[in-house]
Structure formats: structure tokens, C-alpha cells
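Task 17 of the worksheet. Students: predict the tertiary structure of the chain below and write it out as C-alpha cells. Keep your answer in the requested format; marks are given for formatting as well as content.
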Amino acid sequence: MLTWKDVINFSVNGNPTPDKRVEKTEAEWEALLSPEQFKITRLKGTEMAHSGALCTTYDAGKYNCVCCGAPLFDSTIKYESGSGWPSFTQPIKENAIKYKKDSSFGMVRVEIMCNTCDAHLGHVFPDGPEPSGLRYCTNSESITLEKVEDEQ
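Model answer:
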């Protein structure tokens, strides 16, 4: 289980190696994504709080990167943080997320990105629930939900 200490260590000393890399030109990403997805994932934008389609969705499944399809989070670790963005306590696996110190807007935060394609996802904060204490605050536009069908 990752902790805030691990997150800071990755942001300072280097990230875990991803399973694979996906690289495209800016024009290729722009052709693949909606304008809002491109603004958020490639230009490091954000959506307005409580506006994302996945904020209040709690269906079973995997949350994947909208750009490259890499698995990022599992629905079992999603929770209602009250922040207005989909929030998770852990990535699906340690090397799914890339961490970078972000000093924009006059504050210091840790940006989270897809470790496969460098898509901006949001930020991680040390104010989540136990046992990890982490809150991965993620833009709905940067992820897709791959639902798991109920077995009958």
C-alpha cells in the first residue's frame, strides 16, 4: 500500500517504471480526444468541481486512462471525498501513476499522471481515509469506467 511518504519519494527521486509506454504527437492526441479531454489531459487543465460524469458513479469496474486505456484505479477504492472530483485511495498498481511536484497557482501539490502516456489526471493529497491516508483527486474527463457486468 502506497503512503504519502512513497508519493513524495516518487515525486522527488523518480517514478516507478511503467509496464509500457504510449507516445503520440500533440496533433495525434488532439485528433483522438474531445476538446475538453485534450485540455485536461494534455494541457493540464481541470474540470469544474461537481461537474464530471464520474463524480457520483460507483459501479463496479476499472477506471482507465482516457488517452491510452491503461488501467489506473479500481472501483473498490473509490470513495466520496466531498471534493467534487472522483477520488481514490490507491492506484490499481504501484507503477500505474506518475508523480510530479506542481508549484503552479502559488501552492505546492503533487500532480498525478498516467505513467503509460503522461496524461494529466489531477493531484494526490495526504487527506484521504485510512489506512493509506491518500486522496487521488481525478478529473472525470481524464478517465473512463470499464464496468464489470454482474455475474448471474
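Marker's comment: The chain has a mean pLDDT of 94. The beta strands are 61-65, 71-74, 78-79, 87-88, 97-102, 109-114, 120-125, 135-138, 143-147.
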